[in-house]
C-alpha cells in the first residue's frame, strides 16, 4: 500500500519536475522520512489536544526537534516501534511538564545541569544504522552546543519573566535528550561488545 502510494507520488513528481529515474530512491526515501516526521508531529499535537496542553506540546516540538536532529542518540529498530515509543514518551513528557509546574524544586535545576553536561560532553551519538563522518561529528557538536546555550538563555529569561511553562518545557526537552543519548551510548557499547564476541 505504502509502496504504491510512494510510486504514484514519484510518477507525478517525475512528470512535473522532469526528474531522472536514477534519483528515484533518494526522492522516495525523502518522501517516506518526511511522511513519518509529519505523522509524529500530528500525533504529538493530538496528544497535546487530548491532555489540554497544546501550547506545551508546540513549545516542546520547537525546542526538542532541532536538538534531536543533530544530537542523535537511541533509535528504535523499526519505524513502528519508533512511532509507538515516540507517542508514549510524548505523553510522559507532557505529564512531567504538568507535574513540574505544580511541584517544582531544586532537583529540577540539578537535573537540568546534569542533563546539560551529558549532552555537552557526549553529543553527537551516532546510531549503527546512521553512522556519522568525522566532519559531521564536529559540525553537529557545534550546532547542538549552540542550540543548548540558546535554550538555556531562553530558560533563564523565562524564569526572570516568570514564564515558568517555557522554562519547564526547555528543562524537560534537555533532560529527555540526555536520556536518549545515554540509551544510544549503551546500545552502541552493547553492539560493539556483541560484534567483538561474534
Question: What topology emerges from the helices and strands here?
Answer:
Blueprint lengths: L1 H16 L6 H27 L3 H18 L7 H24 L3 H17 L11 H27 L3 H34 L1
Helix pairs in contact: 2-3, 2-4, 3-6, 3-7, 4-7, 5-7, 6-7
Give an overview of the whole structure:
- By secondary structure, this protein is mainly alpha-helical.
- The protein has seven helices and no strands.
- α2 (24-50) packs parallel to α4, α3 runs antiparallel to α6 (134-160) and α3 (54-71) runs parallel beside α7.
- The longest helix has 34 residues, at 164-197.
- The two termini are 38 Å apart.
Which keywords apply here?
mainly alpha, 7 helices, 82% helix, 198 residues
In short:
This protein is 82% helix and 0% strand.
Shape: globular
Task: Please state the structural category.
Answer: mainly alpha
Calculate Rg over CA atoms: 19 Å
- Overall helicity: over 70%
Q: Sketch the major β-sheet.
A: none
Q: Span between N and C termini?
A: 38 Å
Query: Helical element count?
Result: 7
Topology pattern, helix = H, strand = E: HHHHHHH
Please give the oligomerization state of what you see.
Answer: single chain
Quick check: average pLDDT? Answer: 86
Share in β-strands: under 5%
- Low-pLDDT runs of 5+ residues are none
**Strand count:** 0
